[in-house]
Amino acid sequence: MKRVARRTNSVMALLLVAVMTLAGCGSAASSGETTQTTSQETTQATASNDPIKAEIAKGPVTLVGYQFGDDTVDHKTVLAEVNKKLEKDINTTLDLRGISWTDAEKKYKLIFASGEEFDFCYSGAWIGFNSVATTKGYMPLSMDMVKTYAPDTFAATSVDRWKQVTLNGNIYGLPNINAKVKNVLTVFRGDILKKYNIATPANRTDFVNSLLTIAKGEKDLLAWNVGNAEQNGRMRGILYAQAKNLKDVVSGLPVLSVGLDDSTFKIFKTYEDPDYLEYLKTTKQLADTGVWSKSALANKDADENNFKAEKSAVYIADAFETFDNNNAAMTAINPDYANVYTDINPGHKLIPEGGNMSLISVHATSKHPERVMMMFNQFETNKEYYDLVTYGVEGTHYTAVGADKYTPLLPKFNDFGGFTMSWGSNNSKLIRQKTTTSQAEIDAYTKSVAEDSIETPLATFTFDDTDYKNEMAAIGNVITTYLLPIELGLTDQAKGIETMKAKLETAGIEKVQTAVQAQLDAYVKDYNSAK
Amino acid sequence: MRSSKNRTFFYKLKEYKTLLLMLSPATLFFVLFCYVPILGIVIAFKRYTYDGGIFHSPWIGLKNFKFMFMAGDIFNVTKNTLIFNILFIIVNTILEITCAIVLAELSGKYFKKITQSMMFLPYFISWVVVGAFTYNVLNYESGSINTLLKSFQLEPFDFYNKPVVWILIIVVVCAWKNFGFGTIIYLSAVMGIDPEMYDAAEIDGANIFQRIRRITIPTLVPTIVILVLLAMGNIFRGDFSMFYQVTGNNPVLYSTTDVIDTYVTRSLITSPEFGMTAAAGLYQSVLCFAIIMVFNTLVKKYDKDYSLF
Amino acid sequence: MRKKDVSTRVFNIFGYSLTAILAVLSVIPFLMIISSSVTAERSILRYGYSLIPREFSGQAYAKIFGFPDDVIRAYGITIFNTVVGTVLGLFLTAMTAYVLSRKHFEWRNKFSFLFYFTTLFSGGIVPWYILCVQYLNFKDLPLVAQVAPYLLSVFNIIIIKSFMQGIPDAITESAKIDGAGDFCIFIKLIFPLSKPVLASIALFIAIGYWNDWYLSFMFVDQSRYFSLQFYLYKILSATEALARISSLSGIHVGEMPKENIKMAMAVIATGPIILLYPFLQKYFVKGLTIGAVKG
């Protein structure tokens, strides 16, 4: 047990969304060589036959791009700053449009379907990167093009990451330069732990027991107010999957899992796993003791909101930032509330995000793919641009402290907060941490991420469900109908599992499992042979 | 034969020219916004690709329809949709007619004006807010109803675990939100009735209930028939946000509260396909079409003027 | 003055209590919204919504009106949409309904069916979106885009049509004899006679435009053309949308909107439209049609 929980007024984080380079992993050596030569070539390139200069000489271009979310405060001001520089450097202006959060997934697909003219957009596996790419929504790019027009990005990004955005031999976008690694930890309200004399839980049993103690003792406070949002499986994550080092093999299909330790990558159905049934017993006990509401299934509030509203004692944080902000807000209400965070599955494996999880893709009908690449080359590797699109205007939105720290100048709700397109143009070398975060904590976290992270084809494997759309729809429906009530212990679990099993079978779970397994095997083989 | 038919056609064209001219904006509107895009219904039989678009994407036959029938829930869901809509039609119509008649008969001018305006308020409240309020009232631990029960030393009632109760809750909420709207239509019909007919009835010694039964209700029949027929044309469609928000999307309640729209949306949420959405829409359209054809024909037999077309 | 017999008294007791109860039930949630909009955020989260604010706070309004430009502009857009849409829509709807109500127009059922059919079958959202964006260029015409698609509704046409069918033929016959054309009869006779139903349909059309967020969502990229309801809709649905996106993408996404701001926005967005109904009430006059026949 290396990492022991501690109180966090002192700072940093638990579960920060840390960013680390994959450079340490596997194939870095070979990619390193290529990159070096390329960047040298670029810098030495002469004006006469430099394709970038030739492209700039073609005249001014306005690029239209889509990112997620509504325009934040000062969107226009920052964009104007960016454009001032872009015009000077690459003779380009950027028209950056937003897709409102509401129904964003639907609108995203419609924009492609409408045949509207735009040049690039944010993309990611979660928004259907693979399916949009295979139905010809993105422009296929060649490695040569990338090398020519985004030389610095190409140099900084490992060969592996390019492979992760390659489908049928084409590159479908510029991936984040580095992989993000996410950890999920539990947060307790300090005064409640003290009240019941509970030592900071260090494992699952402690955690479950502390929840039971709190639930039995508290009358007007829920121990853990889970709700409908548990559809996303964070409870299953910390009480089951993390402990066994499992990963859902297809996102949105939590009943098919693979062990991260399993070198054969054998997919199994979670509900046939005895450990899963144990986990269900635990949740039943938690539900019966009243750890969460009997009406949890209709509760749309995230556990975090309930925690902040002083209505519950525990929540799961999935980003350092949320923890930091919440802790500050809670201690402002009452200094005794100071939050305690803990990892109840210490040492569990962490999976760095695949390159296809967040990237920038060029629209299939764009007339200026070269400019898009030139522009993102700047955004991803040029510190001035990076600071501008991520933190805003220095002096207005933040103060730079050294090369890798910053102090935000505006309260969060009123801040620029960065263009969301930069989700897809991340570069850990250029990231700034808040000055309030201590270096020691950052180092400790980086170290733990480095130790626990593993490299696995599962990080980037995406099931091609083209021929299984019907099965996927039917299975998805069965899962949303039955799984959550079972996991929240709000229904007869044994009976529920039986019904779900039968329904899943008619919906074609076997067929899908076989197909996923076949695709995964092929993917793994390919992945290993490429090494 | 043919030429004479043509002649009558052109003769009529000439006769109707003003009417046809007056009808042209509407015709243009529906052709443009409805009949042109209706061709796109073919995507229900295609796998949509962005480069192929509507007309060049590959045909895949009936594959897009399959997902609805695979887990066997579609029949239950279709039945729910039908039951809810029938209940809505019955409850809302009775409530709206009662309100309209009462409002027309009561004499307090300001009382009428004010209450009538108040009845219209729920129509402006978004379903998201209605959903939040419902949870506020019904949840087990701190809901208003259960807090009240507990204060009387009674057992709290676990609403969110009792699917059958939700038929009632949804019908009530739907009536509450929409009755102000429907009342207005009936009220404007009641207002069209000749006051002399009432006076005559009064002289005959009819009391207020007899007047309502003999005069008001018969004059309302055409309006009732039309509104019910219009509602029937949507009898296999459910208001997604109502069912989704009011139940809080609670899976335990699906057995009674799941309608086609929520079912389809849920099925397609992880892997949305335009073709499959279109297929589900077509399924509903065909069912609605069948129902409305039958009932419109029946109504037409009874009185031509009451029918929709 | 009618004399009050027993049945009238019974009816009045029933009538007054029914309307009073329904009115109270209708108004309570609305009062809760208003009350929540002036309640401190912490108090709403902790104790839920209530009729009387537990802890008063004007913060939500202060925040919304801290940058009033957005709200004021959105009001402008919404009022424009509503006024233009209602005037044009009401006229076109009534005109269409008039033609379909003419008994001597033999094709009226064919046209009725042509129109009604569109409520049953549609090509769905994709072809419609492509038509509007690619061919009608709605993205560059945000004001047209937010009015045109809702100008006519089959529901409204049919309601007005059925009302017009109830107007006695005698009225139009005499006008015809005087040589009045169809359009003239429509404007001079039928339109004014249909006031009660036109008032209610005008109300429906106006509310339809006022409550609409969908057209903004679909066609408007520039925030200065957003309608008021779209702002409201975004705020109300943001909590769920943000939670979903951050869970899918693993990226921590923005701030969730606060409850009291949601409610304050609901109050602001409902705004003056609730005053429209009392204003239109004067058109609900008894016996309008019949009087005209005799007059």
Give a structural overview.
With 531 residues, chain A is an alpha+beta fold. Chain A is 44% helix and 13% strand. In chain A, helix 3 links the parallel strand 2 and strand 3 (92-99). The longest helix of chain A has 21 residues, at 509-529. Chain A starts with 17 loop residues before the first strand and ends with a helix. The model of chain A is unreliable at 1-47 (pLDDT under 50). Chain B has 2 domains: 23-61, no CATH class; 73-306, MetI-like (MetI-like fold, Orthogonal Bundle). Chain B has 309 residues and is mostly helical. With 295 residues, chain C is mostly helical. Helix content of chain C is 72%, strand content 0%. Chain C has 16 helices and no strands. In chain C, helix 11 packs antiparallel against helix 15 (273-280). Chain C is globular, with a radius of gyration of 24 Å. The model of chain C is unreliable at 289-295 (pLDDT under 50). The chains are: A alpha+beta (531), B mainly alpha (309), C mainly alpha (295). At the A-B interface, helix 4, helix 18 and helix 19 of A face helix 4, helix 7 and helix 14 of B.
What is the gist of this entry?
The complex is a heterotrimer of chains A (531), B (309) and C (295). With 531 residues, chain A is of the alpha+beta class.
